[in-house]
Amino acid sequence: MKTDPNRNEPAAEREVVITRVFDAPARLLFDAYRKCEHIRRWFGPRGWPVTLCEIDFRVGGRFRFAMTGPTGEQNTPFGGEYLEIVENRRIVYDNGFELPGAGRMVVTVTFDEAGDQTTLTIHTLFDTIAMRNEHVGMGFMAGVNSGLDQMEELMAELQR
Amino acid sequence: MQAQTQKLDLVFAALADSTRRAILARLAKGEATVNELVEPFHLSQPTISKHLKVLENAGLVSRGREAQYRPVRLEAAPLKKAAQWIGNYERFWNESLDQLEEYVREMKAKESHENRPKQKRTRR
Q1: Angle between helix B88-123 and helix A129-136 axes, rounded to 10 deg
Q2: Does residue B57 belong to the interface with chain A, where contact is any CB pair within 8 Å?
Q3: What does the pLDDT look like over B61-105, one tens digit per residue?
Q4: B99–A41: do the CB atoms touch at under 8 Å?
């Protein structure tokens, strides 16, 4: 993959934003991010547990994770550096796979507590539009409004 | 990588049409002749053929050699590639956050359990 960071490309086209509202205080969610004992319990898709976890939780410190898939084989580790840490409010880190030429992303996790709820926002800024598209399939999303459901049906059909 | 990206572009462009996705869904059940494909779609044969051409260019279907019928069949490999790729990142996070929801509930329960004796003590 060619990964010349092209920061001249508009940020809006290099980013992905994912949010979720939790019935929990920000400090618990923040804690879930800072310790391996917690990360191992939730990080990653189902069936892909984190089997390598190293965290040096301070600005300038690094983290390194790897997940093991259903085949039992550990996947390529990924990780990066903590760029900013604001207790119970925000974590900014850079991240990427440990592969030659792999692109980088800067992830900003924001914890917004209001009443009994906390909104978690995961903002990811990829190096390039191409990298974003490769991760998210936006080329497809842009052309298809309701294509995903049909796509899923189709895949289910294929796997029969 | 360039060539592969271009190939994926073709796949996604081909999939960006509901008739073509319907054709693929039909072919997922087994190969069919063009005439068999025309029937359920209430479209003209040239229109169906045009869609098939797009699917063929994307490598999503192939045509048999048999001169008379030339049955159309699904080529699953590029589709699987596209599906692996679609929404990977969002799916990654959505599934992680589903698990985080469950885990945070557990953290909360643990915390309130640990706090309970304390509250009793202060009441006494």
Answers
A1: 80
A2: no
A3: 998 877 677 899 988 777 766 655 555 677 788 889 999 999 999
A4: yes
